[in-house]
Each structure stands twice: as C-alpha cells, then as structure tokens.
Amino acid sequence: MIKYDSNAGTFFLAGDTYSYSFRLYEGKCESVHFGAASDGVPFSLRKYTYRNFSPMIEDKRGSRSFGDMPLEYSEYGRGDYRTPAVQIEGDGFASTDYRFSGCEILSSHPQAGGLPVFRGGETLRVDFYDAVSDSSLKLYYTVYPSGLVRRAEISAGGKPFTVRRLASFCLDLNGCYEMTALVGGHGNERRRRTWKVDTGKSVLESNRGTSSHQCNPFTALAEKDAGEEHGRVYGASLVYSGSFRIEAEVDQLHNTRLIAGYNPDDFSYPLAKGETLSSPEALIVFSDSGYGGMSRAFADTIRDYLIPEKYVYASRPIVINNWESTYFNFDEEILCGMLDKLKGLGVDMFVLDDGWFGHRDDDHSSLGDWFIYSKKLRGGLAGIIKKARECGMRFGLWFEPEMVNSDSRLYREHPDWCIHTEGRTPLTGRYQLVLDFSRPEVVDNIFSQMEKILSSYDISYIKWDMNRHLTDMPDFVTQHKFMLGVYDLARRIVARFPDLFMEGCSGGGGRYDLGMMAFFPQIWCSDNTDAQARCLIQYGSSFPYPLSVSSNHVSICPNHYSGRTVPFATRGEVAMLGAFGYELNPYQLSAEEHASIQSQTEQYRRMEHLVLKGDLYRLSNPEENGIFCMELAAKDKSEARITFVQFAMQPDPTPFRIYPRGLDADAVYTVCGDVTDNEQFTGRTLMNAGMDFPEVWRDNEAHIITINKATHGTKKRV
Asked: Which terminus of the chain, N or C, has less C-beta within 10 A?
C-alpha cells in the first residue's frame, strides 16, 4: 500500500509486516518511521535544537540543521556532514540542493538502465530538482508484503557533470546498533561476523569488480541483544554483482545512517546532457522477531519477486558434475563410464565442466574459444548427450563467458578485447584475462558463440563461471559498464533459450548476490565441498538468501579442498539444504556409498518442497558451539524437518536441547528420528518444552528429525 497526502506532505508505505513513512520539509524528505506496522504516518517525536558548528535552517518551528535531520536521501555540501548518498561534480558546482518537484504512484515496476530489477509491486517515484546543476533526482520505492525495494536515478539537464557517488538508499535510524556482515575468502565465503557500530563508520565493500568472496553485499543492523527470534533487525541487500560499498555511520547524536550503493573508490561516471544513471536496486526488510524473521522476509521476497519466475518453485535438477571427478583429464569413454555407474540412481542431470572446448587440457589456454575440442570429444557433444539420455539424464555444460586466455583464437584475432591500460601489460589470474564486456561487440561475439553451441545440441542446463577479479581498468566507467554487459549477455541467453536452466558460479560463491539471482535460480555456494565447512558457509548464506538458490553437492572424501573425511550420510544431509547434487567419481565410492545415492536422491525429492517453499529456523549457531542445526517448516505448519550435525564428539557430553519453531501450537504432531520414534506431542509442547538430541559418538555425525501433523492421536508431554 502507498498513500500520499499532498496537504500534509506525508508519504505512507506498508507491507504485511512493516510500515515506512516520511514527509516533506523545506523541499526535502524527512524520514519518520521504518519498522513494525502502523496505521498511518506517526507524529515525529524527534526534537530539534540549535547545533554549534552546524549550518541552520530557520523557520517558524525553530532552528534545525540538515546535519541532524533523518533524511530519505542525503546530499553533499549543504550542511549534512555525514556520508552523502549522492555527490556530483560539474563546472562551478560540487554541492547539490535537491528540492521536491512532484511524485507519482506507478502501476508497473520501472526498469533501471540495464540493471536487474524485482518483478511487480506497487511503486512510488518521488522527484527532485537542483537548479544550479540543472539535474534531476528520482527516488523509487517498491512495496512488497515482506520487504521494500529502493533505488535512485539521476539525470543531467543542460549541463554535463560527473557522478561521484550514487547510493541505492539512505536509511537514518535513531540510536546505535550491532552490524552483521558476511565475510571470508575463496572456499570460506559468507562467514557471519557481528560487532557494535560506535561513533564513526563501519564499511563493508568490494573493489574487485565483483561482489566477491571477501565481503557480501548484505548487512543487518540489530538492536542490542537481538537474537534469532526476538529483537528488532533491519536488513539490506544490493541487487548488484560489481564493486559496492555499504556504510554504517554513527553521528555525534548517536544516531545511525546506513547507505549502500556503488563503491566510490571505483566509480566516477560522467553524464552528458540528457543522460541518466540509475543506482542498483536494494531490498531492505524489517523484523521485530530477530534475525530469523529478517531471513524469512528476505527469502519470501527474493523467491516470489526476483528469482526467474519460471523456476521460483520448480523442482531442481539433481546434478552430477564431473569437475572433481576428472578435472581436465577426460574423454568420451571416461564420461560414458561414469554415466553407466549412475544409471537408475535418481540423478537426472549430467554437467560437463571445464575442458570441453578449444584445445584445453589445462587452464593455460582456450577461454574465449567456445567450440568443441575434437581430440577429447571426437563426435562432438552428440555422443555424450545421447549416452546421458540413455541413462535417464539430461545434459548440461560449463561456460566462462567473461574470460579469455592469451593462448586462444579469440585473443589472437582481438588482443585489444581484454580489459587493459594502454602501455601496460595486464595482470593475469588463473592464466586468464577479463574480456571487456563494456564493449557491445565483445558481448555480441560471445553471445554468438554460445548461441551456436546451445542451439546445435540438446542442452538443458549451463553452469556460468567467473574465475578471477578485475584489474587494469582504463578509467572509472569501464567497471560498471562491464557489469551491465554481463547482465545483458545473461538477459539475451534467457530470452533466446527460455527453457534453459542456468546456475551461476564465480570460483564458488564469489558472485553470490541478488544481481546474479535475477538470472540464475541457483548459484554454486562454494568451491569448498567439505560438509563441515559447508555447514558454516551455508549457515552464513542463509541470513539474506533462500536455501533454494544454494547449489550443494556431495563430494568424495578425503575432501579435495580440505582433506577432511565426513560420513557419506552427513555429506548428503548437508547438501540437501539447497539444490542437491554430486561432485564425485562414482568409481571411487565404496559399494555402500554407491548404494546410498538412490536413497539420498529419493529422500531429497521427498523434502525438496521445504527447501523451495518452507520457512527456515536456525536452531543453533555453529560458529559458537560447533553444532549445526537447521529446521525447515512448511508455511501451513503441517510439517517440519530438522538437520543436526555436531562437528566434534565430546566426552561425557551434555545433551543438546532444541526448540522447534513454526508449528501450530494446538495441533498434534508425530515426531520421528533419533530422539523418539512415532511419538505424538502438541506443537506447544514441542516449541516450549523442546527435545534433547542423543549423544554423538562420531565427529560430524548427522541426525534428522521429522515432525508431521497427525490426523489423530493422543497428546503427550515431553
């Protein structure tokens, strides 16, 4: 719901779980409320007073300064010394003074200059104009039941200028908060870290040209002592896959400003007369039921309004990928042998990874040459696709479209097509260079090559990888235009092949963000397939992202990344908390493990609806206690499934008690698993009294509990 009262100058936006309001003051928009649902625009309780060394506005209500007003969108150079959301520089001006010029409630969701956007939703556009710079600013607010999407757009009138900063939103909050970030590195992505934001700034950013393994474009601000299911939490996640910055700043009055958008260290964007630049969209949510409520609000909004509509709730293919089986050392005979070993086990997609193209026997050559390596695949792809079909599987293929090796036909023909600075030899990563996707002719070439392969063969699935970060920028514009080129190629592939299922990847989780999720229903969560490490990675990933986008595979042990050995059953249970598959050579499995594949695939199909549609409850923090415990509950409260993994067996252990959530307090449930066998309890008893897990006698041992609403039975107490 969106309401604008032109007489009072107030704006009121409301979803099912939150409300958001602001009002006009002296041509600016003053923030009033973002939080739990209210019936209208609340009276502002904020009191203003004279501030020394703060330029003041004098009116009938007294003196006030932009420097301590809660603003909807902050500017540079007009008395607000906090971080600006917008900053431009032109001939004779470096400050702006945007004043309200109108607004409109839109029935359709506007596009954002080539950037990915959410679907649907009622949208408010608020317009501002600055006379000195002759520039226009538009703020967009799109209302969804569980979240609010914001972005900004700036346009040049008759004067050119350079945009130095453009944030997706500015959120001014009363008081101080604890800040959560997802940080790490390759193979250690999205590890949750939380700290108190005190006077000064806390900055989360990537300057790598991608959203990166090191710092995810998400944050949460929570009141002190907020927990999984209690306390106020504000979450924000950018719909962008390039360099970004998120800043939380506490001012002299102990209020907090949160800003997120392009990273100004990597960004300086000239606009000529009549040109427009949009910020990325950002999804912001509010929860008064802790981090768990925040995560469920994120998941519902992302699933329903961002992930490609065709695949939002569609059953995911159970994949076998050959990368950790063979790496580059395969031919058609080896691949066919693998397929024979998997026939009839419930795997329904074979994905051929790196090494099928050009003359690629290692990572030194052939990126950019998307034609079949006939030495390995003498009959092209037709033979292996036919074999996969005979074994009951569809076929998928790996691409790395944005990269090129110097040892390639493409590079020899177009050496200037890689990102580079004239006069300087560009750096390589994994022996590869980055194609300059800011140039349309480069994107056109790669699209033509991919289109030829995808239209020539029966290919149902592609894995889109990106294995190095950006360097050697010739200017501050190329990096953003590169990202627009990536989105353009993805959009064109989807339009040309609407039934093609695409998985994103960047050395695992290096572009695990909402920008990619707008095109890819799932993303390879991490190159680290060790199940214990994945518990921690998947735990952190679950804070802003739904489990359904997390691509998880069972791999061989000792694990190729960590060297750790984890029980095969545990590897399966952890991988089932997302899009399930395998990353192994079936010839290397024991007879018992090989026989377990069919039962695992059957089990996943039985619980997949909870991954795709259910509510997530984190019942333990594995970062603190080494116990991973996640519950998936059906939205209709008819069933729940709990996965428990304890990393290390403890001598004389204290039983670990859990308290299931998301149940109907008055209903009777049948509980099955290691804690009990077909006993019945009320939802109230289960949620309030809880249950103890049995002693664990083996490191990384997994236990599963299923809870199903009973049609009849006797109520029992724990």
From this structure: N
In tens, the pLDDT along 192-242 reads 999 999 888 999 999 999 999 999 999 999 999 999 999 999 999 999 999
Name the percent of the chain lying above pLDDT 70.
96
User: Helix, strand, coil % (nearest 5) of the chain?
Assistant: 20, 35, 45
Please give the Cα distance from 404 to 102 (Å, whole number): 48
Which tokens is 640 given?
């729940």
Q: Judge contact between 94 and 159, C-beta under 8 A.
A: no
Per the listing, tokens 């069972």 go with: 554
Cα distance between residue 718 and residue 696, in whole Å: 21
Which of 703, 646, 654, 714 is CA-nearest to residue 679?
Answer: 714
CA distance 173 to 204: 18
The closest alpha carbon to 148, from 287, 242, 248, 45, belongs to 287
Q: What is the pLDDT of residues 285-314, one digit of tens each?
A: 999 999 999 999 999 999 999 999 999 999
Q: Which tokens in the block code for residue 82?
A: 């906090």
Judge contact between 557 and 212, C-beta under 8 A.
no
pTM beyond 0.90: the answer is: yes
* pLDDT exceeds 70 at position 714: no
Exposure string of 256-288, with b = 16+ CB inside 10 Å and e = fewer, is: bbbbbbbbbebbbbbbeeeeebbbbbbbbbbbb
How far is residue 414's CA from residue 446's CA, in Å, rounded to a whole number? 13
- Nearest-angstrom CA–CA distance, 156 and 531: 52
Q: Does the pLDDT value for residue 53 go beyond 80?
A: no
> CB count, 10 Å around CB of 637?
17
Of 185, 143, 122, nearest to 37 (Cα)?
Answer: 143
Which of 505-519, 524-538, 689-703 is the least confident region?
689-703
